[in-house]
Amino acid sequence: MDFMIYYQPVYTPDPSSGSLKLVGMIQIGMQLDQTERLFLLLRWVLAGMAVLVIALAASVGWFISRKAFNPIEQVIAATDQIEKGADLARRIEYKGPNDEIGRLTQTINGMLGRLQHTYDELEEAYRAQRRFVSDASHELRTPLTTIRGNVDLLEKMWRQTAEQVGPAGKDRMQLELSLEAMHDIAGEAERMSRLVNDLLSLARADAGFQMAKTEIELRPLVDEVVRKAQLLPRSAEWIVGDLSALDGLQIYGNSDYVQQLIFIFIENAFKYTDRGYVRLDALRHDGQVGIRIEDTGIGMDKEEIPHIFERFYRADPSRGKKSGTGLGLSIAKWIIDEHNGSIEVKTIKDAGSTFVIWLPVLQPHMSSPEAIEIQAEGHSLPQGNQV
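-> C-alpha cells emitted (387 positions)
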C-alpha cells in the first residue's frame, strides 16, 4: 500500500537566545491507491477521447473533402466521356456556391457546349460529304458507261474505215490520229470508271454498308482469282505456289468481295514489279488461313507501312509513274475488317514486298458470325507488321 507523507517542523522563539527553537515536527500521511486509480482512469479516458476525436475529425474531414471534390470527380467523368466520344451532350451538375469550383464548372460546361456544337457541325459536314460522294458516284457511272460504249463503237467504225482507205494518204494519217485520240479517251474513261467504282465502295463502307455473307469454299474462289490474274497486263513472272492449305476450308464472308480483296493485292504487285516474279501461295496458322502475295518489286520504307491503307496515299517513288487512284488498299482494308481478318506486311526497299491476308477459318461447329468473331479474337498471328 502506497502513502504520501508530508513533514513540517514547528519552531518557537527562545527568550534567552533570541532565536527560534525547534519544539516539534508535524507529520501528515495520505494513502495514494485511490488517487492513482483516479489518474489512471483519467488517462484512459483522455486516450479514448483522443482516439474518438481523431476518428470523428477524420470522418468529418473525409466527408467534407468528398463533398468538396465531388464536382471535380464530375469534371473527370465528363472529360472521360468526351475522350471516348460517347456523350458530348453531358454536362457537369453542380449545386453549390459560386466559388472557384463553381466558376470552373461553368467554364467547362460552356466549353463542352461549344465542343458539341462544333462536333455536330463537323458530323453534318461529314454526312453531307458521304452523301455527295455516294450520289456523285452513282450519277457518274451511267454517263461514263455511255462514253466508253460510244468510244468503243467509234473506234471499231474508224478501224473499218482505215482498212478501206488503204495504207497511205492524208486520210489515213488523220484516221490514225483519230484512233489514237479515241484510244486515249477510252483509257481515261476506263480509269475514271475505276475511280468512281472505288469511291462508291468506300461510300458504302462509310455509310455502314453490311455486305451479305455466307459459308464459302475458299479453294475454288482462289482458283478463280488465279485464272483472272493470268489475263492481267504484266512484265513480271506469275507464279502460283502451293495452295493445298486451302483444301476443304470454309470461311464466313462474301465471295465477290473476297475475290476483289485478293485481286487488289495481285494487281498492285504486278503494277509495282517490273522484273522478277509475283507469287501466290497459302498457309495456315492456329485456326486461320493466310493468302500470301509476294513480289520482287520496288518495296517500301518501313515508315510508309502505316500509311499505305490511307485513302489516296501512294508511295513517293511510284507517284506519277504508275497509274492508279490510291484507293485500292483502303477498300482492301475495309473488306478485311468486315471479315474479321488482318493483314501482315513485310517489305524491303527496292527488294520487294509480301502481303499475307489472314482470315478466320470456319470450323465445323462454328457457323455463325459471332462464332467467327470469337475465333478471330482468340488466335494470334506470326510476328510481322500487322495492320
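The helical segments are 33-84, 100-165, 170-206, 218-229, 255-271, 328-338, 369-377.
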